Amino acid sequence: MLLMATVAQWIEGARLRTFPNAITPVLAGSGAAAGMDGFDPLIALLALVVSLSLIIGVNFANDYSDGIRGTDDSRVGPFRLVGSRSAAPGAVRNAAFACFGIAALAGLGVVALSGQWWMLAIGALCIAGAWFYTGGSKPYGYAGFGEVAVFLFFGLIAVLGTMFVQAGQVSGFGIGAAVGVGALSCAVLVANNLRDIPSDQVSGKRTLAVMLGDRDTRTLYTALALVPFVITVLIGLRNSWVLLGFLALPLLLTPLRAVVRGATGRYLIPAVRDTGFAMLGWGTITGLALAFG
């Protein structure tokens, strides 16, 4: 039987709600670079292409790998191309590889313009990390290392890498922004994995949430969600404009309430989405404050 997903299904499979995880670090890193008079709009744009291509690629890669393993057969959450039998596994895999190729080309442009050729190795590491999250014979996402990878790739590397290729250096403010973005990006994944604990236990996917259990995962989410605002206070001691980052706090109240009050299953889907929006808000405000404060 020939499986032909519609354009709308492919777009849904790309998981647009995860885009804040890709956009936020580029905004924060570019703002930090601008604060050091190093902002380069073309490099920033290419860095955004890299980040968006990687996150779409990892979403398709996860859809493919989880789908062929049967992990998505009974999972609550976003639409899956392979799990729903809407698209052939090979087509989804090829879409992932195409996105990784776009990321590689845009990344080549970044290093050519910045002259930081050694960062090609960082780019290769990011692509490998995107694929082996759920791909390969021993995916690290099935062994509880997903949050570590998200903090590293969509926090430290994405923010500081964006800053470095523009300004040629990193600052303490940039490191603070990277930690804050990384923590919120991890919180998005923790909320997602909290929702999936029952189905992941059945399928044998040992995420950090499965290992910690329901209660401790909720505590972890709360701690990660509040880390950026500790960063806001610390950076605010030197740059008072960064304190405007607290304007993003109301965006976290609803998902925090849902997690703390014990929401489960599909009732956690809005918490995943809203945590991403809070991250985008905090990162945008912090980036602008670092640029103009």
UniProtKB/TrEMBL annotation:
InterPro entries: MenA (IPR004657), UbiA_prenyltransferase (IPR000537), UBIAD1 (IPR026046). Keywords: Cell membrane, Membrane, Menaquinone biosynthesis, Transferase, Transmembrane, Transmembrane helix. It is found in: Cell membrane; Membrane. GO terms for biological process: menaquinone biosynthetic process; vitamin K biosynthetic process. One of its GO terms (molecular function) is 1,4-dihydroxy-2-naphthoate polyprenyltransferase activity. Its EC number is 2.5.1.74. The keyword Transmembrane helix applies. GO terms for cellular component: plasma membrane. The chain crosses the membrane at residues 42-61, 91-111, 117-136, 148-167, 173-191, 220-237, 243-260. It is a multi-pass membrane protein. Pathway: Quinol/quinone metabolism; menaquinone biosynthesis; menaquinol from 1,4-dihydroxy-2-naphthoate: step 1/2. NCBIfam families: menA (TIGR00751), PRK06080.1-3 (NF004751). Conversion of 1,4-dihydroxy-2-naphthoate (DHNA) to demethylmenaquinone (DMK). Belongs to the MenA family. Type 1 subfamily. This is 1,4-dihydroxy-2-naphthoate octaprenyltransferase. It comes from Saccharopolyspora dendranthemae. The lineage of its organism: Bacteria, Bacillati, Actinomycetota, Actinomycetes, Pseudonocardiales.
